[in-house]
Specification:
It is a single chain. The protein is an alpha+beta fold. Among the domains are: 4-143, Glutathione S-transferase Yfyf (Class Pi), Chain A, domain 2, CATH 1.20.1050.40; 177-241, no CATH class; 356-535, Neurolysin, domain 3 (Orthogonal Bundle), CATH 1.10.1370.40. Helix content is 56%, strand content 7%. The protein is built from 26 helices and 9 strands. The chain has helices at residues 19-42, 49-76, 80-101, 104-115, 124-139, 146-176, 192-204, 216-225, 229-240, 254-270, 276-281, 289-320, 328-343, 347-351, 356-371, 456-473, 495-501, 507-510, 525-533, 539-556, 568-579, 595-598, 608-626, 631-642, 650-658, 665-670, and strands spanning 179-181, 210-212, 374-377, 388-393, 399-408, 418-423, 426-428, 431-433, 436-443. The radius of gyration is 25 Å and the shape is globular. The mean pLDDT is 97.
């Protein structure tokens, strides 16, 4: 038991975990779990919560706690050894869970427990877990004939491998790309801090000049600020064609997409669904594929006039810049210039007011004010020296949650931002386990003796991920499988994250989280007013872009025939014919690096971002009505939404908080599309 991954009495021992620990730990846990399953399956006792369901919860919690550390490290400090260990053991875990989900003996015991008199005496959380288990056994193929069970399991194992490979290909292609520039005149317009970082990156590679990569803190400023159109096109092309036929053959995700779609369709049909989207929606808030399509089309109808107006304004302005044939690599550049002219400020100017320490202090202040908790820096072993650790305590000083923070982009760390569970709250024999979260971003690291500076968009991202973290850490549910974000419908899981973003547009919040990096001066009210005026700049275009991705995803998994002559690229072009106002070039290979749906759990669920935005905007409107930092509203939000986790449906939690079902009005108003 000296294996650090088998340490369950405290925080993970990241300073000790190595790739060689993974297989022995997983083998031990799975062997132990299989023994537990056999004991439970063969027991003659009448199944109860304590003698049956709770024991499966214990088993699952241990496996999940160990594997979350492995998965996290594979995402943030990827190495060949860790990747191999991760993939080898992912196959073992997939095999184990496929068997577990099809175990008719356990399924029968859950059915017996559901039908027993004891069921009526259980807590709301325990009842919800049993109902979820019965649904999940059906969706795992427990009711299939023996031969089909074997095939269903093979599909699950193949999909796990393919999803992992899809993400690896995007990561490897992103890490591999480097553009070295020797001529400083090519870099005109790019912010000084970005150039300093690029210079340091080149020096680290024993090169002269400046190094640019496809990591977002390097890539995006070039698209936004570089005056050299050829440079913008070069980087855009490299980014937009990642993991496609335009790069290394072994990183091409085209065949993987085809295999994933065929397998998902086959799995859905085995379970009696017409397509994979129907299977996906069986566990979500939305009631049908038709409802999702209707929701997206209704939103598109409302947003498109605003998007067309945005595009016409941008075209006209780009022509003034000498860009008469605006291309995809010109959009961010022309948009930034237009915004600067229209609202007399730039992202770069705003960024100087958001040093990391002030942003974090401001974020914590919001949480402390509305929830009455305290966030303080703490100590724990971490996987990288730039990661940190924090405690959340209630007003009585009791520890209620903890989180790791890993903010900066680096090689061997996957892109994007996310929250994940390290440890989930539960109570066993009167002992409470404190929930712990991983909060991960990919921002620019500090340059020289200056702190890291965040754009306002990055501040929004920070608040977004912390919202997910609060959902996980402020739960008051004591049963593992519906504690925190567990058991929450996927299309509602973005509610707490998107709700937190709204605070970044409030003067009483923002002014207290700014200090100019050179002068220490607070963000001027005049600059804030310009930011608010520009808040919905191109909101129509941005909304249509999200609808484009969402429609592509839902149609890919409901209407598209992976065996037919139409290609995935044909489908996305059809969707763009309907809704796109900005058309990328034909060689753009967006599907090849759409990790959300091919490796990130959002298959036939990307619409969730817009769906949950309706919920979050409407929920936030209660803060607007009662005072945005109202502790009373914060307490109600905590009690009815965050605290409940997955112990009841998201609709029940929303209506308990808001006093009614959700309305789209607040979302349209927040996006400047009301009326």
């Amino acid at each position: 038991m000296s294996n650090p991954l088998l340490h369950f009495t405290g925080l993970p021992k990241f300073d000790e975990v190595k790739a060689e620990h993974v297989s022995p730990a997983v083998d031990f846990l799975l062997s132990d779990a299989r023994a537990t399953i056999e004991t439970l399956a063969l027991s003659k006792d009448t199944p109860t919560w304590d003698n049956f369901a709770a024991k499966l919860e214990d088993m699952e919690e241990k496996i999940s706690r160990a594997w979350s550390q492995v998965g996290h490290m594979n995402g943030v400090v990827n190495s060949p050894e860790l990747r191999e260990a991760y993939n080898d053991n992912l196959a073992k875990l997939t095999d184990f869970y496929a068997d577990l989900g099809q175990d008719e003996r356990l399924y029968a015991k859950f059915r017996a427990l559901r039908a027993s008199q004891q069921f009526d005496t259980l807590t709301t959380s325990q009842k919800k877990i049993i109902e979820n288990e019965l649904r999940d056994f059906r969706l795992s193929g427990a009711e299939l004939p023996a031969e089909q069970k074997i095939r269903f399991k093979e599909i699950q194992e193949a999909l796990a491998k393919l999803s992992s490979k899809f993400e690896e290909n995007v990561l490897d292609n992103t890490n591999d790309y480097a553009l070295y520039i020797e001529d400083v005149s090519v870099l005109t317009g790019i912010p000084e801090d970005v150039l300093q970082t690029a210079k340091a990156a080149a020096t680290k590679d024993d090169k002269t000049g400046w190094k640019f990569t496809l990591h977002f803190p390097s890539y995006l400023p070039v698209l936004q600020y570089a005056q050299n159109r050829e440079l913008r096109e070069t980087l855009y092309r490299a980014y937009a064609t990642r993991a496609s036929e335009f790069g290394k053959t072994e990183w091409d995700n085209t065949p993987i997409i085809s295999q994933i779609l065929k397998l998902k369709l086959e799995a859905a049909k085995l379970l009696g669904f017409a397509n994979y989207a129907e299977l996906s929606i069986a566990t979500k808030m939305a009631e049908s594929v038709k409802q999702v399509n209707g929701f997206l089309q209704d939103l598109a109808k409302k947003a498109k006039p605003y998007a067309l107006k945005d595009k016409a304004e941008l075209d006209e302005y780009a022509a003034k810049l000498g860009i008469t044939d605006m291309q995809a690599w010109d959009v961010a550049y022309a948009s930034e210039k237009l915004r600067e002219e229209k609202y007399a400020f730039s992202d770069l100017e705003v960024k100087q007011y958001f040093p990391e320490n002030k942003v974090l202090t401001g974020l914590f202040k919001v949480v402390e004010t509305i929830f009455g908790v305290h966030v303080t820096k703490s100590h724990a072993s971490v996987w990288h020296d730039s990661a940190s650790f924090y405690d959340i305590k209630n007003h009585a000083g009791h520890l209620i949650g903890q989180f790791y923070l890993d903010l900066y982009a680096r090689n061997n760390k996957r892109g994007g931002a996310w929250m994940d569970e390290a440890i989930t709250r539960r109570k066993v024999a009167g002992q409470l386990t404190t929930p712990v979260a991983f909060l991960t971003c990919n921002f620019s690291e500090p340059v020289g003796d200056k702190p890291a500076l965040f754009t306002h968009d990055e501040v929004l991202t920070m608040f977004h991920e912390f919202g997910h973290g609060l959902h996980h850490m402020l739960t008051l549910v004591d049963d593992y499988s519906v504690s925190g974000i567990k058991g929450v419908e996927w299309d509602a899981v973005e509610l707490p994250s998107q709700l937190m973003e709204n605070f970044c547009w409030e003067w009483d919040v923002l002014r207290n989280m700014t200090a100019h990096v050179d002068t220490g001066a607070q963000l001027p009210r005049a600059l804030f007013d310009k930011m608010v005026a520009a808040k919905n700049f191109q909101a129509g275009m941005q909304t249509m872009r999200q609808i484009e991705f969402s429609l592509f995803d839902i149609r890919l998994h409901s209407e598209f025939d992976p065996y037919g002559s139409k290609t995935v690229l044909d489908l996305i072009e059809e969707v763009r014919d309907e809704v796109a106002v900005v058309r990328p070039p034909k060689w753009n290979r967006f599907p090849n690096n759409f990790t959300h749906i091919f490796s990130g759990g959002y298959s036939a669920g990307y619409y969730s971002y817009k769906w949950a935005e309706v919920l979050s905007a409407d929920a936030y409107s209660l803060f607007e009505e009662n005072g945005i930092l109202s502790p009373e509203t914060g307490e109600r939000y905590w009690r009815e939404i965050l605290a409940k986790g997955g112990s009841r449906t998201a609709m029940e939690s929303f209506t308990a908080f808001r006093g009614r079902e959700p309305s789209i009005d607040a979302l349209l108003r927040h996006n400047g599309m009301a009326g």
